[in-house]
Amino acid sequence: MFTSSLLLVTFFSTLAHALPEQSLVPGGIALLGLPDYQPETVVRFDGKRVAVFPYEDSWFAIAGIPLNAKPGDHHFSIEHHNGITLKTRIKVLEKKYAEQHLTIKNKRKVNPNEKDLKRIALERPRKRKAKSTRTDAVPDVDFIWPVSGRISSIFGLRRFFNEQERRPHNGLDIAAAEGTPVKATAKGTVIEAGEFFFSGNMIFIDHGQGIISLYAHLSRIDVKPGDSVDTGDIIGTVGQTGRVTGAHLHFAVIANQTLIDPINMLPKNQPSAELNQ
Fold first, then answer.
1. What share of the chain has pLDDT > 70, as a percent?
2. What is the pLDDT of residues 143-185, one digit of tens each?
3. Which of 76, 204, 225, 252 is surrounded by the fewest CB atoms within 10 Å?
């Protein structure tokens, strides 16, 4: 086994706007150029296998950086079929996320009762299984916006519901009128769809190799597990089911079982998307 500390991180500032944008902070993504990629090559980030995808005449790896990642050095390993392993490091920068205080009228959505807790416990394995899905399909990372609207809540906010602190916000909230069609952000396969206590009507779509998109608080679900979808297909409609303060789409993205900031996966020039950050 041969080990190297080659710095292969590639920035995407000159690539098409719809491709992922590197952001080396907790909750961001790291991108790695793979000039010698072969189909048998395995790439890992901090020990977790990550997705690889082609762009023009080369291949790249995309790794989600956990929201709780500590600033400092983190590592990619590139394992070739001939036994040679190359290693490279990236430096994750510190980022402090703001707070958000919300008032929830349905107090059970903040402090569930015993019956609610049993339901939540039954839902947890379904969500865990969906988030950990990994297929061999080459991932489609050329995302589009699932719906147009005002960004009402950004990723990473420390959240307080009725002044009680809960987990940081793990997605992007896009405000839109109830009933607004929601599009599949890229081609893939539906791996979970149903009603959940906190998330309301929710859909998970597998885009390949652990790249998964999630759509929550829907008023209607138009797909079922096993369905294949193309980019732009209508999969449901905006709603206010689950724990919400109004109609919106909660959109989340998972890479290597890590929830990442969806804004880094979306085009920057959507004319009707207002980025109030």
1. 89
2. 999 999 999 888 888 867 777 777 778 899 999 999 999 999 9
3. 225
Structural domains of the chain ordered from first start: 1-96 (2.60.40.1590), 99-265 (2.70.70.10)
User: What CA–CA distance (Å, rounded) separates 24 from 262?
Assistant: 14
Residues 6+ apart with CB under 8 A from 32: 8, 9, 10, 43, 60, 61, 62, 63, 76, 78, 88
Q: How far is CA 67 from the centre of its chain?
A: 12
Average pLDDT over residues 107-111: 79
Q: What's the rounded Cα separation, in Å, for the pair 143 and 232?
A: 9
pTM beyond 0.70, yes or no: yes
- Per-residue pLDDT reduced to its tens digit, 37-94: 888 999 999 999 999 999 888 899 999 999 999 999 999 999 988 888 999 999 999 9
Cβ-defined contacts of 127-132 (< 8 Å, 24+): 127/192, 127/196, 129/192, 130/191, 130/192, 130/204, 130/212, 131/204, 131/212, 131/254, 131/257, 132/257
21-53: b or e for each residue (b if 16 or more CB lie within 10 Å)?
bbbbbbbbbbbbbbeebeeebebbbbeebbbbb
Rounded to an integer, what distance in angstroms lies between the CA atom of residue 238 and that of residue 146?
Answer: 10
Distance in angstroms (rounded) separating the CA atoms of residues 238 and 147: 9
- Distance in angstroms between the alpha carbons of the first and the last residue of the chain: 46
